[in-house]
C-alpha cells in the first residue's frame, strides 16, 4: 500500500488537503484519487492508509487543477477547459455518521454533472476554488497574467472577460450566480471564514517604471450581485510571491520576491516591513492567528509571531541549539520543492495524546514525498500557541521588547482577557527586578498599550479594565518612588489624582531632603482633599470616553502636554537620573503617543500652573550637596547593575 502511494504522489500533484479530524488526513491528487491517512495521535506515524479511486477516469478530464471535498459533494476544475465537475452524494449517511466513517465514495452513489463557467475559451488557466462558511456558494477564480503566449482572439462579452465566478449550490443543484472582472489581475481570492457573503481578493498592478502596487479588495455578495466594499492600495518594492490572511481577517501578510515580508494591520491601519532569513515561497497562519510559518521553496521553515518577531526553532533534543530557521531539505537525498503547508485546525486536546501538547502541520512537496511536522509546545503548556504562552516564553528568555511588541499587536476590544493577562505578566515581571532606563521605558510602553491605544478602545472595554490596570499603574508609581524617580512619580500621581500618592511623595521627598518637592506634594494632597477629588466624583466618566473629536479637548491636552514638558525642562540636572540627563534632548522631540486623545485641563483637575512654577522655581535653588552625592551614588550603583542606559519616553496616562 505504501509503495503504491509513493508511486502516485510522484506522478500526480496534491491539489487538496482535508483534515477530517486530528488523526484523519485526506489527500486529493490531480488524477482525482483520494488517499486517506490515519495518523497516530502521539507519535505522528502512519497507522493505516486507504486509497479511493471512485472518481478516477469519471470526470470531464483526466487531470484536475483544483478540487474541494466534503461529506455532501465533490467539485473539481480543469485547466484546459472552462467547465467544472460537480458530484452530489445521493446516498450518503447522516452527517454525524459520515464524519466517522471511511467508506469509499462510490458507495454513496455520487451523481456527477458538468457546468460551463464564464471565462476565456481555449486558454490553459488554473481555476481555483474557495467555499464560504455556509457551503452554499463556491468562488472560482483564475489569473491570466501567466506570461504564456496565446493566439489573439476577440472577447465579445463580459462573460468571456470575467476572471471571478460565484456558483450557487443548493443540494444537488449548482448554477452560476454571478461573475465579474477585477480591475487588476488577481493573485489570490477567497471567501471570508467569518462572514459567508464576504470575498477578499489580492490584485497586483505593475507600473510602467517597475513600481508594484497591491490592491487588497473586499467585496460583498448582495442579492446575487457583487459589490465593492473597500479597497486598500499597498505600494511595494517588488512583486508578491505568496500571501496569507490571518484567521481573524484583520492582518494581511505578503511575501515578496526580495525576501521581504509585509504585514498590513487593518485594525491599526499600519503597514510593517521586515526581512526574512529565507526567500518566502509559502506562508501559513496557525489556526490561533498568533504565529505563522514562512517556508522557502527549498523547504526551509522560519517562524514568526503576530508582532513580527522571529521565533527560534530546533528539533526536539536534550541539547539547547535553537536556529533562526529550520532546514527540512537536509533529510532528503535529492532536492525537493515545497508546494504548500497546512496546519491541523483541530486542538491537540481533542485527541488521545500524551502529556505534551503538539501542533501538526502537513507538508506537501511537488511530485515528491509528503510529511508531517509536529511542533512540541511543552509539558506544562495547555493553551496551544496562545499569546500568553508566547509572552511567558519571552519573559523566561528575557525578551521583554518582543513581548511588548506582541502585546501591541493585540486588539483590546476582541481579546481583552488575553491582553490583560499579557500586560499583567509583563508589568509584574518588570516590577520584580531593579529599575533602570530600559525597564522604565518598557513599563511605560506596556502600560501605554491600554492608556494610549491606536485606534481608541470601546467604552465597555475601558470601563471593564480601567480599575485593575490602575492598580498596575499605582505599583509602577511606587516603583518609581522607590528608585527616587521623583519627576515621573509626580507626573504619574497627577494623572492618577489620588491624595495618598502625593502624601507618599511628600514623606519620601522629606526623607531625602527635597524640601521643595515635599511642600508642593503636600499642598497638592491638601488641595485634592479640600476639593473632594480623592474619589474623582467630578470625573465619573473616564477621560478616554470623552474623546468626542472636539478641538477643545485636544487643546486642553496639548496645553497639559506643554506644561509637563516645561516642568521637566525646568528641573535642575541634580534632580535627574543620569539616563534622563543623557536623553533629555532627545525626549523633547519624542511624541507622547496620546496626541489624538482628549484629556481634561490641569486647571479642571485643580492643578494650578503657579503650583508647578513654584515647585520648579524652588528646585532651581542649589540643592544640598550631601543629599545629591548620596542620590548619585545610589544611581551609579544601580546603573552598574543594570549594565546600560537607554532612551526615556514620557507617557501622560490621563486620569486612572
Rg (C-alpha, Å)? 31 Å
> Helicity range of the residues?
25-40%
pLDDT averaged over residues? 81
Report the sheet with the most strands, covering strand number, pairing sense and barrel closure. 5 strands, antiparallel
Number of helices: 15
pLDDT below 50 for ≥5 consecutive residues: which ranges?
A: 350-355, 533-656
Number of strands: 28
Outline: elongated
Could you say which structural class the secondary elements and strand pairing correspond to? alpha+beta
Our estimate of the beta-strand percent is 25-35%
Rounded to the nearest angstrom, the distance between the terminal CA atoms is: 67 Å
Features:
five-stranded antiparallel sheet; WD40_repeat_dom_sf; alpha+beta; WD repeat-containing and planar cell polarity effector protein fritz homolog isoform X2; 656 residues; elongated; 27% strand; single chain
What's the short story on this structure?
By secondary structure, this protein is of the alpha+beta class. Helix content is 29%, strand content 27%.
How does this structure look, described?
There is one protein chain. The protein is of the alpha+beta class and 656 residues long. The chain has a domain at 434-642. Helix content is 29%, strand content 27%. It contains 15 helices and 28 strands. The strands form 7 sheets. Strands 21, 22, 23, 24 and 25 form a 5-stranded antiparallel sheet that branches. A 4-stranded antiparallel sheet has the order 1-2-3-4, covered by helices on one side. Helix 4 (387-396) runs antiparallel to helix 5 (400-408). The longest helix has 24 residues, at 459-482. It is found in: Cell membrane; Cytoplasm, Cytoskeleton, Cilium axoneme. Belongs to the WD repeat fritz family.
Amino acid at each position: 500500500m505504501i509503495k503504491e502511494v509513493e508511486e502516485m504522489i510522484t506522478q500526480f500533484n496534491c491539489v487538496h488537503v482535508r483534515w477530517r479530524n486530528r488523526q484523519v488526513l485526506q489527500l486529493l491528487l490531480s488524477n482525482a484519487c483520494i488517499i486517506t491517512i490515519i495518523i497516530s495521535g502521539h507519535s505522528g506515524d502512519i497507522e493505516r492508509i486507504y486509497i479511493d479511486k471512485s472518481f478516477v477516469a469519471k470526470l470531464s478530464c483526466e487531470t484536475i487543477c483544483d478540487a474541494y471535498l466534503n461529506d455532501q459533494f465533490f467539485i473539481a476544475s480543469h485547466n484546459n477547459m472552462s467547465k467544472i465537475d460537480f458530484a452530489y452524494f445521493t446516498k450518503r449517511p447522516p452527517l454525524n455518521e459520515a464524519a466517522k466513517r471511511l467508506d469509499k465514495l462510490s458507495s454513496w452513489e455520487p451523481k456527477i454533472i458538468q457546468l460551463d463557467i464564464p471565462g476565456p475559451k481555449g486558454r490553459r488557466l488554473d481555476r481555483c476554488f474557495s467555499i464560504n462558511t455556509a457551503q452554499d456558494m463556491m468562488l472560482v477564480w483564475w489569473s491570466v497574467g501567466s506570461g504564456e503566449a496565446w493566439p489573439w482572439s476577440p472577447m465579445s462579452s463580459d462573460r468571456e472577460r470575467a476572471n471571478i465566478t460565484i456558483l450557487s449550490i443548493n443540494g444537488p443543484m449548482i448554477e452560476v450566480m454571478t461573475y465579474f472582472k477585477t480591475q487588476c489581475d488577481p493573485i489570490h481570492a477567497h471567501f471570508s471564514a467569518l462572514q459567508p457573503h464576504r470575498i477578499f481578493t489580492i490584485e497586483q498592478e505593475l507600473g510602467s517604471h517597475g513600481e508594484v502596487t497591491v490592491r487588497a479588495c473586499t467585496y460583498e455578495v448582495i442579492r446575487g450581485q457583487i459589490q465593492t466594499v473597500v479597497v486598500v492600495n499597498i505600494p511595494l518594492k517588488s512583486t508578491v510571491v505568496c500571501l496569507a490572511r490571518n484567521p481573524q481577517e484583520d492582518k494581511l501578510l505578503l511575501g515578496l520576491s526580495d525576501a521581504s515580508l509585509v504585514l498590513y494591520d487593518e485594525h491599526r491601519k499600519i503597514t510593517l516591513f521586515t526581512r526574512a532569513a529565507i526567500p518566502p515561497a509559502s506562508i501559513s497562519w496557525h489556526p490561533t492567528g498568533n504565529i505563522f510559518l514562512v517556508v522557502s521553496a527549498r523547504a526551509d521553515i522560519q517562524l514568526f509571531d503576530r508582532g513580527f518577531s522571529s521565533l527560534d526553532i530546533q528539533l526536539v533534543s536534550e541539547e539547547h541549539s535553537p536556529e533562526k530557521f529550520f532546514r527540512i531539505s537536509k533529510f532528503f537525498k535529492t532536492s525537493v520543492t515545497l508546494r504548500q503547508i497546512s496546519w491541523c485546525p483541530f486542538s491537540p486536546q481533542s485527541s488521545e495524546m500524551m502529556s505534551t501538547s503538539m501542533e501538526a502541520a502537513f507538508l506537501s512537496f511537488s511530485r515528491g514525498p509528503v510529511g508531517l511536522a509536529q511542533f512540541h509546545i511543552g509539558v506544562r503548556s495547555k493553551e496551544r500557541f496562545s499569546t500568553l504562552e508566547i509572552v511567558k516564553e519571552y519573559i523566561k528568555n528575557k525578551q521583554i521588547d518582543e513581548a511588548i511588541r506582541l502585546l501591541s499587536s493585540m486588539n483590546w476590544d476582541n481579546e481583552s482577557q488575553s491582553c490583560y493577562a499579557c500586560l499583567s505578566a509583563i508589568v509584574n515581571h518588570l516590577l520584580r527586578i531593579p529599575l533602570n532606563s530600559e525597564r522604565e521605558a518598557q513599563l511605560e510602553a506596556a502600560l501605554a498599550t491600554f492608556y494610549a491605544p491606536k485606534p481608541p478602545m470601546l467604552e465597555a472595554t475601558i470601563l471593564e479594565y480601567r480599575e485593575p490596570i490602575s492598580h498596575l499603574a499605582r505599583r509602577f508609581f511606587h516603583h518609581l518612588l522607590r528608585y527616587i524617580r521623583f519627576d515621573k512619580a509626580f507626573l504619574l500621581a497627577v494623572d492618577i489624582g489620588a491624595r495618598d500618592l502625593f502624601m507618599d511623595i511628600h514623606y519620601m521627598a522629606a526623607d531625602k531632603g527635597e524640601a521643595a518637592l515635599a511642600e508642593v506634594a503636600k499642598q497638592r494632597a491638601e488641595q485634592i482633599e479640600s476639593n473632594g477629588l480623592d474619589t474623582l466624583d467630578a470625573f465619573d466618566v473616564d477621560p478616554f470616553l470623552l474623546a468626542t473629536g472636539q478641538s477643545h479637548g485636544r487643546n486642553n491636552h496639548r496645553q497639559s502636554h506643554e506644561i509637563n514638558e516645561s516642568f521637566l525642562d525646568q528641573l535642575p540636572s541634580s534632580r535627574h537620573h543620569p539616563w534622563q540627563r543623557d536623553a533629555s534632548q532627545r525626549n523633547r522631540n519624542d511624541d507622547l503617543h496620546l496626541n489624538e486623545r482628549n484629556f481634561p485641563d490641569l486647571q479642571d483637575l485643580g492643578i494650578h500652573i503657579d503650583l508647578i512654577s513654584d515647585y520648579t522655581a524652588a528646585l532651581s535653588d542649589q540643592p544640598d550637596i550631601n543629599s545629591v552625592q548620596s542620590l548619585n551614588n545610589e544611581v551609579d550603583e544601580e546603573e552598574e547593575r543594570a549594565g546600560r542606559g537607554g532612551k526615556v519616553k514620557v507617557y501622560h496616562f490621563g486620569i486612572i
